[in-house]
Each structure stands twice: as structure tokens, then as C-alpha cells.
Amino acid sequence: MALLTPERLADIDSLRTQFSSEEQLTTELVRRKWLTPLQGRWLLRGHGQRLFVGSYILVDRIGEGGMGQVFLAQHRSFGRSAAIKVLRPDRRDNRRGRARFLREMRALGRLDHPNVVHAYDAGLVGRACYLVMEYVPGPDLAQVLASGERLPIGHSCEYARQAALGLHHMHERGLIHRDIKPGNVSLAEGGRTVKLLDVGLVKERMNPDTDGEVLTQAGWLVGTADYAAPEQVLNARNVGRRSDQYSLGCTLYHLLAGEVPFPGSTPVARALRRVTENVRPIHDLRPDLPAGLSEVVGRLMSREPKGRFPSARAAADALAPFATPLVKAVAETTVHISTCPTLPTIDGVTATESELSTPHDAP
Ligand SMILES: Nc1ncnc2c1ncn2[C@@H]1O[C@H](COP(=O)(O)OP(=O)(O)OP(=O)(O)O)[C@@H](O)[C@H]1O
């Protein structure tokens, strides 16, 4: 069990005599915080080797999206925290899928901006694709919205402004995010810095061309219907830089109005409304908005891409007069890093193909 230091391994030998089963012993190790609950569960199920991904050890499961699961992890030598996305087996289980993943990762490696999540590493362990990223503690803006907290107008504008700067950086390097929504705009540094998440894999998800390995457009709509640009709703391949502006506009609208711009009973109905209707001006819902902000939101959400700003940078500049600096605007979400055991000594264990083939938290 290379998760533990040699001293603790020695202690375990004596602990073994006190516990009649592996389960009781593991429960005790979790209670002592020598193992995290995730590590305890996986060890008990005989999947301990799956905890080792490249140079990292998985610590906790953060969540799951359409492409795979995201874990909190710790570097085996440096102890640095990171987030690791491990692609679902059906998204990676062919050569083209893996080649595309690596192409996307190379693109991601070109990005270097304070408002875009930083990628540290990516690779394959056996046939499993994983991406190691900067850990962003959050909360993300979806969580902020779900908390019911009414944000100051200036903070909402600052979130959107920083997100626009991150988008501009991506656009300059030839990348389009394609999935800007509150859940993909997260906060770091005690709420002072915005980070765009889910960068790099989105192109694969939104490009329904081959392999049968992408979500159907209807499936994609479920999570994104409220934020996708009209041209994107009509044709998922028909996405340009200005489509990201529209999605950012929807996100800002939601933050300011407390409701999505096109409410409706189903994702498809909501998505289609934006193709046929102009958005209700936001000052109808927020008459207290400063003069000019409603126009900026309206321009971001122009139905025609050419009606939007010439660049995300121009959008950021237009938002700047309405933005106020973020001074620890929100509390960070609780992360189970406190349950992370002290940095373990690793004796060169490398995960194998089969060990990572089903990296779910219910192996
Ligand atoms: N770098 C990161 N740091 C911290 N948490 C992250 C990071 N990247 C993703 N997450 C979190 O992991 C969870 C899953 O993220 P993921 O991007 O896989 O899915 P999603 O955005 O929820 O859905 P989808 O990808 O299908 O749109 C989310 O709660 C997300 O906030």
C-alpha cells in the first residue's frame, strides 16, 4: 500500500492485530486521516492502483461531467494540489478519440492566462486519457446562483469582464470555448479571480462528426440550452468566437436578472426561443442597472454575430466601467482537502491500462 509512509505502514502492521477485517482497518485509517474516504473505498474494492495517475495520487472525487470524472489529486513528489479529469471509457476507447484528445491537449498547453484554468499535464496511462489542471476551489457561478445570493451589479460585471479577458486569450490562440455557462466560470483566490473551466475538451464534445463518441445534440442541449448562441443551436459546428460572447452575455444576464434569458419548460424549447426571439431587455427586470449596462448585455446577446462586439477584449472594455474590484466577494467552497493524508512515500507504482479503464467511484 504505497499510499502511506514507511512509518505508517509499520504502524499498520501492529494495528492489524486490533482489527478483525480489512474493512475495519481501512475505516480506522480513514478515521485517522491517513487515507481519504475515496482512497479507503477504492482500496477495499481492490482498485488501489487506480489511485495513481501519472505523477499524481487521487484524493477525492470533485464531480462528473459529460466527458468524464474530475478528481482532486496531489502530486506524488511536490505535494501540489491539482484537478484531474479522467475521460470516460466510451470517450477515449478508440485511436481517433485518443489522437483528438492529445491534439486538444496540445492546444490547451498553448494557453497561459490568469483567467483560464492552467493545464499542467496530460497523457495516457494505458488507454486512459487524463488531463491534469490547476485546482480551482470555486465556487463556480452556477453554485453562486444556486445559493440564491444576489450579487452586487459591479461584481457580476467584473466576473464577466475577467471571463471575457480569458476568452480573448483563447480566441487569440485560435480556440473557441463553446460551452461558456455559469458552471464553467469558477472563482479562485478567495473569489477575486475568475477562471474559465472545461477548456480544451469542449471542441470534441461539440463536434458531432465521427466515431459516435460525442454527445447527441439533444443530449448536449440539456446542460447548455440556456447559454448557447442561436447559430450554435441551429448547427453545433457553426460556432465562432462571437458565439462565446453570446454565451457570456447569457451568463451575465442570469447573474444580473436572477433568471435565464429565455425561460421555458424544456431545454429544446428554451434553446429554440433564442433563434426566433430577441431577449427581453434586462432593464425590464433590473430597472436599477446603471445607464448603458443594458446595452452592453444586449450587444453581447445580439442574435446576429456581427451585432456583437468585434472581440472579447472589446466586450471586456465595455464592461469595465460597470465592474467593481472583487475583494473576497464569496467564500470558497469546502473541499475535502482537509482529509488529504500527509504526502505519501511512493515506491514507483504506475497504473496500468486495466487499472484505469473504469475510473468511476463505484468500481
Ligand atoms: N480545474 C478544476 N478545479 C476544480 N474543480 C473542477 C475543475 N475542473 C472541473 N471541475 C469541477 O468538476 C466537476 C465536473 O466538471 P466537468 O467539466 O467534467 O463537467 P461539467 O462542466 O459539470 O459538465 P460538462 O463537461 O458535461 O459540461 C464540476 O463540478 C466542475 O466545477
Overview of this structure, please?
By secondary structure, the protein is an alpha+beta fold. The protein folds into 2 domains: 27-135 and 335-363, Phosphorylase Kinase, domain 1; 141-322, Orthogonal Bundle (Transferase(Phosphotransferase), domain 1), CATH 1.10.510. It has 15 helices and 8 strands. It has helices at 6-16, 22-31, 37-44, 89-92, 95-109, 141-146, 153-172, 202-206, 217-224, 230-234, 241-257, 267-276, 282-285, 293-300, 312-319; strands at residues 52-53, 56-64, 68-75, 81-87, 119-125, 128-133, 185-188, 193-196. The chain has a 6-stranded antiparallel beta sheet. It has a two-stranded antiparallel ribbon with strand order 7-8. Helix 2 packs antiparallel against helix 3. The chain is elongated. The two termini are 18 Å apart. Mean pLDDT is 81; it is low at 204-218 and 333-360. The structure holds adenosine-5'-triphosphate (ATP). Residues 62-67, 70, 83, 85, 117, 133-136, 140, 179, 183-184, 186, 197-198, 223 line the site of adenosine-5'-triphosphate.
